[in-house]
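User: Please predict structures.

Assistant: First:
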Amino acid sequence: MTVPMEYRQASRDFDAFLVDARDTAMLQTTNQAYTMIEAVLTVFRRRLSVADALAFAAVLPPVLRAIFVSGWDIAEPVRPFAERDVLTREVQAFRGDHNVSPETAIADVAAALGRHVDPAAFARVLDRLPPAAREFWRA
């Protein structure tokens, strides 16, 4: 079996995603974009069961999939979804002084992500998650 293309070009695809997210959020650096992306993915993951989170991770590109599950404490209680402004504040609090995520961080990451995933697979996984999960990814 050959190495799947998604793994062969994982770094290149992730770099393109970082730049897209940076530009969408009007940030200065890809380091800032990385922190924003990690925060958005973590805030979302905290609201899913293990099974739902793994189903979601399966439709992400390889590097984003790794970021999504990195540092995950599966014993942590699942948090409820909340209003967008509450979730945004949680994103902005991630890593405190090293985070410059804008008020639009969730929508910005959602917009960029939508350009870097298989839209049909992404829609299918969101359809099996709670309605608030679908709302989270509304750009």
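Second:
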Amino acid sequence: MAKYFDVHPVDPQPRAIDQIVTLLRDDALIAYPTDSCYALGARIGSHSATQRIRDIRHLGDKHHFTLVCADFAQLGQLVKIDNAAFRAIKASTPGSYTFILPATAEVPRRLAHPKKKTVGVRIPDHAVTQAILRALGEPLLSSTLLLPGEDEPMTQGWEIKEALDHQVDAVVDSGDCGTEPTTVVDFSSGSAEVVRVGAGDPTRFE
């Protein structure tokens, strides 16, 4: 059964965050809130959790996982960013955007797109997510919690606990979450291309 954490959305309890991070370091898979919608998250180095995300969401090997970062310093270690992309991304973070960029050698090959060698990265504007990332000290491997056959992600922690009680190790609940995933902007070709319109305003990249 998944552990259930009721975390304050603005002032997360340090004890709860420490317990969540301890689970993550033991290769746990968690469901957690972000500034767009709920997501599945695990340590980048956890092979087993990565496969569990694929199994839960029925994902193929061409799926772009997202690496969720605490700040620009972490993000810059994972992807190659030219000056134009740097300025645009810096002005839009933290926020509800995922950026697709060429991966650096820091990203395990299994997480990058098999042909394009790209990966999605983001810096969320959410107090609980940021608290987890800071305590963990490394990015989270993440994927929107959208179950097969569903049109929208689940928004309630208790609902996720009921649905995925035996498939995730913990559910982090900090109140209602949105239903819109991030806006995805692909910079891998050298210029910005909005490939999915979501919670973030796409007009700044059009």
